[in-house]
Amino acid sequence: MTITEAIKKIKADAKANFVESVEAHINLQLDPKSQAIRTTINLPHGTGKKLNILVIANDYDPKLEKEFLDVTFGTDAILKDITSNKIKVSDINIVISTLATMPKLASVARTLGPAGLMPNPKSGTVIAPEKLQDTIKMFQKGKVEIRTQHDLPIIHTSIGKVTFEESQLVENFNALFESVKANRPPKTKMDWIKSVHVSTTMGKGVKVEV
C-alpha cells in the first residue's frame, strides 16, 4: 500500500475507546551498535501528545518557570528525587539539561538511560542555557527524537493521533521517512530499509511500500 492508503485503512479500523496514537515502525538492515541512528525532526503537525518535560539545569533563568507552567524545572538538587523515585521516569517524556549541568546527571544515568531519557547533544537535549526557551517550544510544537533501539535496528515513533486528518499523518510520516534516509549510516547495504509499517496503538500493522 502507499502511505496514503495505509493511513486511510488504519484510521478506518481504529476501534479503541480512547484516542489512539498512529505509529511508524521502520525495520532496518544495520548494526544497532555501530550504525545507530539518533537525530531529531520537527513533525509538521506535531504528535498530538502533551509532553511532560523535565529541565535539570543549575543555570536556567527562573523567568522560564512562569512562561512554561507545565514544565518541571530543577537544579541538580532534583536528582535525588529521581533516585528515590519521587519523580517517576515513567511520567517523563523528555529530560533537558545544559552543558554545565550535564556532568551532574551521571548519578542518575542508570535510571534515565534505560528509559531513553538521558539528555544527549544528538537529540537536542543538552544545550546552552540561553537556548532553553526555544528548545522547550520546539519540543512542545512537535520536535521528536528518532532513534534505533539499543539492541535492534528498528525505529518506532508516533506520527500523530487517529483524530488527525489523513493528509496531516501522511505529511508527518513523509517528514520522518525523509529524515531517516538523510541520516543513513555509512557502509549500509543498498537495501538497508527492510520494511515499513504503520499502525494505531491497538491495531495491526499495515505494510507501506516505499
Alpha carbon gap, first and last residue: 9 Å
Label the CATH architecture of the largest domain. Answer: 2-Layer Sandwich
Fraction of residues in H or I helices: 10-25%
The domain count comes to 2
**Tally of alpha and pi helices:** 6
Helix/strand order: HEEEHEHEHEHEEHEE
Question: TL;DR?
Answer:
The protein is α/β, with parallel strands linked by helices. The protein has helices at 3-13, 63-67, 79-83, 109-112, 132-141, 166-182, and strands at 21-28, 38-42, 53-56, 72-74, 94-98, 126-127, 143-147, 154-161, 193-200, 206-207.
Would you write up a description of this structure?
It is a single chain. The protein is of the alpha/beta class and 210 residues long. It folds into two domains: 3-47 and 143-207, Ribosomal protein L1/L10, rRNA-binding domain (Ribulose 1,5 Bisphosphate Carboxylase/Oxygenase, 2-Layer Sandwich); 53-141, Ribosomal protein L1/L10, domain II (Rossmann fold). 25% of the residues lie in helices and 24% in strands. It has six helices and ten strands. It has helices at residues 3-13, 63-67, 79-83, 109-112, 132-141, 166-182; strands at 21-28, 38-42, 53-56, 72-74, 94-98, 126-127, 143-147, 154-161, 193-200, 206-207. The strands form three sheets. The protein has a four-stranded antiparallel beta sheet with strand order 8-1-9-10, with helices on one face. The protein has a four-stranded parallel beta sheet with strand order 4-3-5-6, covered by helices on one side. Helix 4 (109-112) links the parallel strand 5 (94-98) and strand 6 (126-127). Helix 1 (3-13) packs across helix 6 (166-182). The mean pLDDT is 94.
